[in-house]
Design a protein that fits this description.
- The complex is a heterodimer.
- Chain A is mainly beta.
- Helices cover 14% and strands 59% of the residues of chain A.
- In chain A, helix 1 crosses helix 2.
- Chain B is mainly beta.
- In chain B, 7% of the residues lie in helices and 47% in strands.
- Chain B has 1 helix and 17 strands.
- Chain B starts with 5 loop residues before the first helix and ends in a 21-residue tail after the last strand.
- The chains are: A mainly beta, B mainly beta.
């Protein structure tokens, strides 16, 4: 981030209220700030997360995010991370899925030794406010994650992570409590090209959707008593999110996740990435909701 | 001063100047076998005649700026004090695990200016424990006659005439190349080296990346 931009950002943050004496240490604090912007365009198959194949909705999605973070070395092996981020998610075909998230992050990192090959353990926490177009989904999300990462060569690094998430929404339909585990690796295959991949499993609540005719049949026993009994025990409501009469409902599920990405460093600060992600959701009574997406991102670090 | 002594002083000065060894110049041209210039190769001349080696006179500097070390390769004579100014806007944790000098400068804030004396000749690999891509080499040589190739692969060393062991080390060569060389007073010698370098295995700078998510 160039010094002028940092000063302008600082001035905006201080809203002109601080004296010149106050500005000097704040400017130094701001010097340690890293700001990243990302834009992603994706094509998502079964964005609607519907189980009935003929009713599934595919759509293009667009995401813009801005993140600012700062790190401070607390002791030779300990690093403190703090940051804030904003993410705007837009689905032109289904505008009720649009949302804006504003979050604060705090984490601590412990490095076991000196040098790039030393393992790193990182604990991160985040608190995010979600302003969804769908009022029932608005609320607060708390997250915590623990990650152990290790670089094996100058070109290969890998990590294992465990995450926990809780989203408290206005409606219980959108309340989530999830935990997940994942393994990821990144391989710098050439000077500018990298390949990365991850596999993981998520367990907990997810929100699925159904067109009204499908839902009506499910809760009235048309798909059997197990389906009717389970769906009638879970929170649901008509949200019209993917069309008139569409229902959103909350289920307990296991999700198998994997993603592969190829990224190209356009410069030291800018990277373009093509990512394929897949999530295969199986809810508690065995109903499946496969979702796949292709995304193209450009990420720039100021 | 007694004016009658002036001619004697002039004669002594002239004799001293005449006796001072006229330096020789050595030009190195380092290239790959394809003819591409090799920058940052360190050339040093180690006297084989038992000639006295003058002590270091200037301090060295390896700065941290824009989350990189400057310069990538620095050469100093053994016994030189090297300053490590943090000219960046972020903290660094400069360290070396090299046998020639193990050290750490943790909690190293912008504006700090620590210095260390490097007594032992050898290669000191420098890193930052926060920014893993930061890498630099400090080459400590037991001689004041050294230089580093520029972007054109050229380096010039000026040294007293005599017999030397020439050492040439670029960062992407595991061991230094050596050859014996005799420099003649007031003469310019040129040596060309065709260097087969290993691939550049530097860690890529922490790029901007995006991770997938699922809600």
């Amino acid at each position: 981030m160039n010094p002028l931009a940092k000063r302008m950002l600082l001035a905006a943050l201080l809203a002109g209220g601080a004296s010149a004496h106050d500005r000097a240490p704040a400017a130094s604090w701001l010097g340690n700030l890293s700001v990243t912007a990302a834009g992603t365009a994706s094509w998502v198959e079964n964005l609607s997360r519907a189980s009935a194949a003929p009713t599934r909705k595919d759509a293009a999605t667009y995401e813009l995010s801005l993140a600012a973070s700062r790190h401070q070395q607390l002791a030779p092996a300990w690093l403190l991370h703090a940051g804030a981020d904003a993410t705007l998610f837009n689905v032109p075909d289904y505008t009720l899925a649009n949302q804006l998230k504003l979050g604060l992050r705090l984490g601590v990192q412990r490095k076991f030794g000196l040098g790039p090959l030393a393992p790193v353990l990182q604990l991160d926490t985040a608190l995010t406010s979600k302003s969804a177009r769908l009022a029932a989904d608005r609320g607060w999300t708390a997250e915590a994650s623990l990650r152990l990462a290790k670089r094996f060569t100058s070109a290969l690094k890998a990590g294992v992570s465990g995450q926990w998430l809780q989203h408290d929404a206005r409606s219980p339909v959108f309340d989530l409590q999830q935990h997940s585990f994942s393994v990821d690796a990144t391989w710098d295959v050439a000077e500018r090209w990298s390949l990365s991949g991850s596999v993981g499993r998520l367990s907990g609540d997810i929100v699925a959707n159904a067109a009204w005719p499908v839902w009506a049949q499910a809760i009235s026993g048309g798909f059997g008593p197990v389906v009717a009994g389970y769906y009638n025990s879970r929170p649901w409501s008509v949200t019209d999110i993917y069309g008139p009469g569409w229902v959103s409902y909350n289920v307990e599920a296991d999700v198998d996740l994997w993603s592969l990405a190829a990224s190209y460093a356009l410069s030291d600060r800018t990277t373009a990435e093509l990512r394929h992600s897949s999530a295969f959701v199986v809810n508690k009574i065995g109903v499946r909701y496969p979702t796949d997406s292709w995304g193209l991102s450009v990420v720039h670090r100021f | 001063m007694n004016i009658r002594r002036l001619p004697v002083l002039f004669a002594l000065a002239a004799a001293t100047l005449a006796a001072a060894p006229t330096p020789a110049t050595l030009t190195i041209h380092a290239r790959t076998p394809k003819g591409e210039p090799v920058a940052d190769a360190v050339v040093s001349l180690h006297p084989l005649d038992g000639a006295a080696v003058p002590p270091p006179t200037a301090a060295g500097e390896v700065a941290q700026q824009n989350q990189e070390f400057t310069a990538y390769v620095t050469v100093v004579q053994a016994g030189t004090r090297v300053v490590f100014p943090n000219k960046d806007t972020v903290q660094h944790h400069v360290y070396s695990l090299s046998k020639a000098k193990k050290f750490e400068l943790p909690l190293y804030n912008p504006g700090q200016n620590e210095s260390i004396v490097f007594d032992t000749p050898g290669l000191v690999t420098l890193g930052c424990n926060i920014h893993d891509w930061m890498l630099a080499y400090l080459v400590v040589v037991p001689t004041p006659w050294f230089a580093k190739t520029d972007a054109q692969g050229l380096a010039t060393v000026t040294a007293p005439a005599g017999r030397y062991r020439l050492e040439l080390w670029p960062p992407r060569l595991s061991a230094a190349l050596t050859q014996e060389i005799t420099l003649t007073a007031a003469a310019t010698d040129q040596r060309d080296f065709a260097l087969t370098l290993k691939p550049d295995r530097r860690i890529r700078r922490g790029g901007a990346t995006k991770s997938g998510g699922y809600r």
